[in-house]
Amino acid sequence: MKNKTIVSRIGMLAVIMALSMTAVTGCGSKSGDRTSDEVSSEENADTAGMVHLNSADEVSAFFDEVYGGVAEDLLPMGGAMTSELDLGDADMLSYHTGLTNLDGIEGVYLSESMISSTAYSAVYIRTTDDADAEGIRKQLMDNINPAKWVCVSAEQQYAVILGNDIFFVMGHQDTASEVLAKAVAAAESRDMKVSDTLEKANPV
Questions:
Q1: Between vectors from CA 144 to CA 111 and to CA 119, what angle results, nearest 5°?
Q2: What is the mean pLDDT of residues 25-33?
Q3: Please, is 202 exposed, middle or buried when counting C-beta atoms within 10 Å of its C-beta (0-12, 13-18, 19+)?
Q4: Greater pLDDT, 3 or 80
Q5: CB neighbours (10 Å) of residue 185?
Q6: DSSP 149
Q7: What is the pLDDT of residue 115?
Q8: DSSP calls for 59-127
Q9: Is 60 exceeded by the pLDDT of residue 201?
């Protein structure tokens, strides 16, 4: 009888432990376990894409990538040089971009032909997180002077929002449209959301 009692107790303990493990596992799956789809959704939410380029170096690399994809015969004559404009120089900013309200703007970068009589200009604007990118884009499109050069004028101008930054280009139709296409591709390679395109034809 003694042996049977010991065996019975051992059997009961085994059953109790098995039930306890099942309860613990069940609780874990309800409160903490996530399906692969749930994990994937959370990871995608954390990596929704870039919103801004973060420095002058990143803007320079962006322009290098853009121009590297443009056919040589469409590139601005003499090649393009990119520089950062001084946000404290209101006259220079107004001349090159038409911008007078700098709210939400962290940096303005100008890329133009090294031959001053060539009607080509591209502008990249880095913004703050709370900037009104649409408002900045409209100000740029409406106020920039497509005939700022001596004796020449930009035939076409385009502007898009990349993440929350703004890219603008104006020049000959073929050049401006190709530069725009490469800028969109460069933004998409950085996982930046691309807006619709504003465009405007100018008399030449």
A1: 50
A2: 44
A3: middle
A4: 80
A5: 13
A6: S
A7: 86
A8: HHHHHHHHHHTS-GGGSPTT-EEEEEPPTT-HHHHHHHH-----TTEEEEEEEEESSTTS--EEEEEEE
A9: yes
**pLDDT tens-digit series, residues 100-138:** 999 999 999 999 998 878 999 999 999 999 999 999 999
Q: Which residues pair with 111 in a beta bridge?
A: 82, 122
Residue whose pair of structure tokens reads 């405007």 in the numeric block = 200
Q: Which residue has the tokens 């703050």?
A: 128
Report the C-alpha gap between 177 and 152 in whole angstroms. Answer: 18
Return the pLDDT at 69. Answer: 96
- Phi-psi category of residue 151: left, alpha or beta, with phi > 0 → left and psi -120 to 50 → alpha: left
The owner of tokens 């903490």 is 32
pTM for this prediction: 0.76
Residue 125 main-chain phi, psi, to 5 deg: -120, 120
The dihedral of CA 125, 102, 104, 159: what is its sign?
negative
DSSP one-letter code for 155: S
